């Protein structure tokens, strides 16, 4: 990212990491440019046919725009390990969200979504 270290109070990365060839590199950059918070919203594999359901909605939302789908999604333990790996401490974590109309939420929402509001855990945060 073409920004200086600690340039922003918070960095938001929403529904992007699963499209990234090297998600840890991108998340490292998000942490680097944040003074305090990194907010992650993405998909989470939990429940019956979760990977298939997420892959379908990912494809349907992105294919028309030419966005490459890698179909790589984390489980809840993988998300938590990712936060630890990047020295992020969760301030808030949502492991179920209602993002869509009720019928769609039953199939594509709720437990297939993940949100973490995390603070840099390096002893130097200002936020």
Low-confidence stretches: none
Biggest sheet details: 5 strands, mixed
Helix content: 25-40%
Helix and strand element order: EHEHEHEHE
Examine the coordinates and then state which fold CATH places here, giving the name of the CATH topology: Rossmann fold
Query: What is the CATH homologous superfamily assignment?
Result: Vaccinia Virus protein VP39
Give the N-to-C terminal Cα separation. Answer: 21 Å
How many separate domains? 1
**Which CATH top level class fits?**
Alpha Beta
Mean pLDDT: 92
Which percent band covers the strand fraction? 25-35%
Overall shape: it is globular
Helices and strands: which structural class? alpha/beta
CATH architecture: 3-Layer(aba) Sandwich
Continuous helix count: 4
Tell me the total number of β-strands: 5
Radius of gyration: 15 Å
Notes on the structure:
- Helix content is 32%, strand content 28%.
- With 127 residues, the chain is α/β, with parallel strands linked by helices.
- It has one domain: 3-Layer(aba) Sandwich (Rossmann fold), CATH 3.40.50.
- Strands 1, 2, 3, 4 and 5 form a five-stranded mixed sheet that branches.
- The radius of gyration is 15 Å and the shape is globular.
